[in-house]
Structure formats: structure tokens, C-alpha cells
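Bench notes, afternoon.
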Amino acid sequence: MNGSCIIPTIRYDDAPKMIEWLCSAFGFSRHLVVEDGQGGIAYAQLTLGNGMIMLGSARPDEFGALQKTACSLGGISQSPYIIVDDLDDVCEKARAAGAEITMEPKDEDYGGRVFSCRDPEGQLWNFGTYDPWNTGE
């Protein structure tokens, strides 16, 4: 399929707060944020470079039954990997914003540096300088 793109989707218990946090801690920008009229977020698109995530408030509807929050599950089964230029700077900004650093920055055998952290609602995020699309890395 030419033109395909993968965009991670995440549910949060307090999506408005997490949008602010993700923008502050990781440098995301609001592309589109649609409030649900009840203090939550019906749908949001946040961008970082050429990438995007979609998120919304957890809610008791048909889709909400399929996609739970990290807090409600007590863990996660998947997490995004975000390619960054200055890994150590991103790590320090995340740490300063209150992220739990679960893996300190380190060099990998396959190339690049990585670190992992949890946001205030327990979602795991992985950041690295390794870009699998760039064969020069």
C-alpha cells in the first residue's frame, strides 16, 4: 500500500491535562483538538516533526471498551518510539516535567542512543536517535 502511514492512538483519563503535558515535556504541537463538551477531549491530533499521535479522553463507549488507559490496565502492551535529534535534551525536558525515566539514555549496539519514560498517566514512551529509514545511521 503506497502512501500508508501509522499513527499511534492513546486514551487518557485526563486528556486536556495530558495534551498540555505532552506539548511541554516532549515538544508536541497541537494540530487539531476537539473538545467533547463535557470537559474532555473527543479527538486530538498532536504533531512532532513529521510524526503525529492521536489521543482522546477515556470514555465508556464502544471504542472505549476496546482501548483502555494505561492506568486502568495497570500497564501497557505497546508504546511509541519517537526519533529525535537531541536525545539528552529531550530526556532532561521530560525529567524536568515530571516524567518517570524508566531507562536512562544509553548507546545501543545497533546504533543511536535511546531512553524510555512514563508520562503522568503511566503511558510508556521511547525516544531514540536511531532512524531505521536513514541507512547512514
